[in-house]
Amino acid sequence: MPDAAFQPASASEATCIRVDLSGRPYDIVIGPDLLDEIGRRIAALRPGARVAIVTDRTVARHHLPRVEAALAAAGIDFTAIVVEPGEKSKSYAGLAQVAEGLIAARIERRDLVLALGGGVVGDLAGFAAAVVRRGVDIVQAPTTLLSQVDSSVGGKTGINSPQGKNLIGAFHQPVLVVADTAALDTLPARELRAGYAEVAKYGLLGDAALFDWLEANGRDVISGGPARGAAVAASCAAKAAIVARDEKETGDRALLNLGHTFGHALEAGAGFSDRLLHGEAVAIGMSLAFAFSARMGLCAGQDAVRATRHLASLGLPTRISDVPGDLPDTDGLMRLISQDKKVSRGALTFILVRAIGAAFIARDVDPDAVRRFLDEQRSV
Ligand SMILES: NC(=O)c1ccc[n+]([C@@H]2O[C@H](COP(=O)([O-])OP(=O)(O)OC[C@H]3O[C@@H](n4cnc5c(N)ncnc54)[C@H](O)[C@@H]3O)[C@@H](O)[C@H]2O)c1
Ligand SMILES: O=C(O)C(=O)C[C@@H](O)[C@H](O)[C@H](O)COP(=O)(O)O
Ligand SMILES: [Zn+2]
């Protein structure tokens, strides 16, 4: 029997989704112009707390003044730490800047860090908050499509190592997520497309009806039509449900890694540069995961074609050769893949698929099969 059709939520009002972690539940509030009232929400959540806003220079230019005004209007004492935009800030140097900034500002354990920005700021500020004074609570205010649908929720925080993506980090759940969907109006088109890859991921990994809906409405999600708010809410609901049942990825949270084993290796191979954004790497990685699944006889070739066609139709890269510039050779990519956090006793784990909306965790995947597949895919 086909899945029931996906029913989008209304886009005009704020939606609240609860992440039901036992003992530490938190809300994701989604809607337009929520940054203008973020001070009120924070004052209600933690009366008397000081706030350290962590943001990047681009987000500061677009959105910091109104966040500062909202905090001031709520009588909150705040400071701001501004990092350089881009993946390079998810580094030891970026961590030192934020951690030392928090300490210099005398942010105490009962104060709050406020991550205002995309996934880079969220992951970096989240990790600094996890370790400074052994833990300060954090509010996530995501300003990219990617961070609103994925990175602000679930508590994965961290920085990159030259040897691989997100290899230094901690689980540190936020106490509140405020996703102002109107903040996406200043986001460049390339970033919107990259964020869309993580939206499509939820359909591809576990919700065929959502994927059907995205095939009809994906363009509207990217261009900022009414489908956008619905897609953010659907994505957060999907992620909240998985995180609530498997906070620390001991089981099926790993499904959220669909496309990431290949994708992270490509990002590291491209030097964490703007040659390849995270969402773009995930789009290529998901296409590869579908093609590899088809190659192994696990899913129908038509499903792999359909998944790739949808991503490509929205302007996302789907092939290794879509990455501009040089990449490591296949052995180099295999070395990066072997550092993936899902590796267990040296054996590779991939998220593979049986169909659109039916991903599964494949353990002990044959590295020779992966190497042969990658070798062949490089010339496609
Ligand atoms: N923790 C998780 O669960 C998780 C999930 C997915 C991705 N991630 C991580 O997130 C990162 C990618 O996040 P991202 O795609 O948001 O990138 P990003 O944080 O680098 O933001 C993308 C760019 O958009 C700019 N920007 C942000 N908001 C803007 C706005 N409203 N208007 C104009 N410009 C704006 C930023 O300055 C930056 O240049 C990667 O490091 C990835 O590993 C983490
Ligand atoms: O939240 C998760 O779990 C995810 O896997 C979400 C991913 O989109 C995200 O990129 C995450 O940071 C990857 O996790 P990692 O453990 O492979 O670093
Ligand atoms: Zn991701």
UniProtKB/TrEMBL annotation:
Q: Which cofactor does it need?
A: Co(2+); Zn(2+); NAD(+)
Domain 3-dehydroquinate synthase C-terminal span(s) in chain numbering: 195-343
Q: Which InterPro entries match?
A: Dehydroquinate_synthase (IPR050071), DHQ_synth_AroB (IPR016037), DHQ_synth_fam (IPR030963), DHQS/DOIS_N (IPR030960), DHQS_C (IPR056179)
One Pfam match, by short name? DHQ_synthase
What does the record give as the reaction this protein catalyses? 7-phospho-2-dehydro-3-deoxy-D-arabino-heptonate = 3-dehydroquinate + phosphate
Gene Ontology BP annotations: amino acid biosynthetic process; aromatic amino acid family biosynthetic process; chorismate biosynthetic process
Q: What is its main location?
A: cytoplasm
List of residues binding NAD(+)? G119, V120, V121, G122, D123, T143, T144, K156, K165
Record-annotated 3-dehydroquinate synthase N-terminal domain positions: 81-193
What is the UniProt remark on how the cofactor binds and its stoichiometry?
A: Binds 1 divalent metal cation per subunit. Can use either Co(2+) or Zn(2+).
**Organism's domain of life?**
Bacteria
**Which cell locations does it reside in?**
Cytoplasm
Q: In which pathway does it act?
A: Metabolic intermediate biosynthesis; chorismate biosynthesis; chorismate from D-erythrose 4-phosphate and phosphoenolpyruvate: step 2/7
Its GO CC terms are: cytoplasm
Q: Which residues bind Zn(2+)?
A: E198, H260, H278
**What class does this enzyme belong to in the EC scheme?**
lyase
What's in the keyword line of the UniProt record? Amino-acid biosynthesis, Aromatic amino acid biosynthesis, Cobalt, Cytoplasm, Lyase, Metal-binding, NAD, Nucleotide-binding, Zinc
Lyase as UniProt keyword:
yes
Q: Name one GO molecular function term.
A: metal ion binding
EC annotation from Swiss-Prot or TrEMBL: 4.2.3.4
Q: What does this protein do?
A: Catalyzes the conversion of 3-deoxy-D-arabino-heptulosonate 7-phosphate (DAHP) to dehydroquinate (DHQ).
Q: PANTHER family, per this entry?
A: 3-DEHYDROQUINATE SYNTHASE (PTHR43622), 3-DEHYDROQUINATE SYNTHASE, CHLOROPLASTIC (PTHR43622:SF7)
Family label: Belongs to the sugar phosphate cyclases superfamily. Dehydroquinate synthase family.
UniProt xrefs under HAMAP family: DHQ_synthase
Q: What is this protein called?
A: 3-dehydroquinate synthase
Organism field: Aquabacter spiritensis
Q: According to the entry, what is the taxonomic lineage of the organism? A: Bacteria, Pseudomonadati, Pseudomonadota, Alphaproteobacteria, Hyphomicrobiales
